[in-house]
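Key result, reporting period 2: structure in, sequence out.
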């Protein structure tokens, strides 16, 4: 499949639904480092990505063909390196710390998680391949 056909596929309803289903099914977290969607947006400027492990079954992927990744782990999969810092340790420290916080703060953080995601496209930030 050419790069342009792949881009067209990524804009298809099928892919959008599969992407949404995969994110929900995998608990809305990066399968490598465990950060949540809102933290991926804050830390890496993009919602969680759904990565194709295999391209052979495009259009009729099996669950094992795709993986939920943050932008940093997605870059590591494709390029073997990244300039993005690893924020997962900080994320997990905050998650553990939240348990010590008052209920009001916990409610506030849960409310923030529910805010609509603004994509990098909407923010006019550069996207990586
Ligand atoms: Zn990650």
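The corresponding designed sequence is given below.
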């Amino acid at each position: 499949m050419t790069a342009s056909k792949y881009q067209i596929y990524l804009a298809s309803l099928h892919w959008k639904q599969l992407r949404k289903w995969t994110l929900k099914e995998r608990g809305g977290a990066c399968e490598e480092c465990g950060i949540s969607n809102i933290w991926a947006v804050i830390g890496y400027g993009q919602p969680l990505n759904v990565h194709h492990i295999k391209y052979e079954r495009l259009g009729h992927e099996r669950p094992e063909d795709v993986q939920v990744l943050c932008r940093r782990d997605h870059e590591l999969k494709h390029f073997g390196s990244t300039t993005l810092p690893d924020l997962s340790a900080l994320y997990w420290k905050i998650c553990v710390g939240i348990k010590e916080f008052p209920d009001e703060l916990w409610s506030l953080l849960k409310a923030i998680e529910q805010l609509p995601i603004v994509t990098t496209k909407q923010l006019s930030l550069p996207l990586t391949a």
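The longest helix spans residues 13-25. The radius of gyration is 16 Å. This case is discussed further under Risks and Mitigation.
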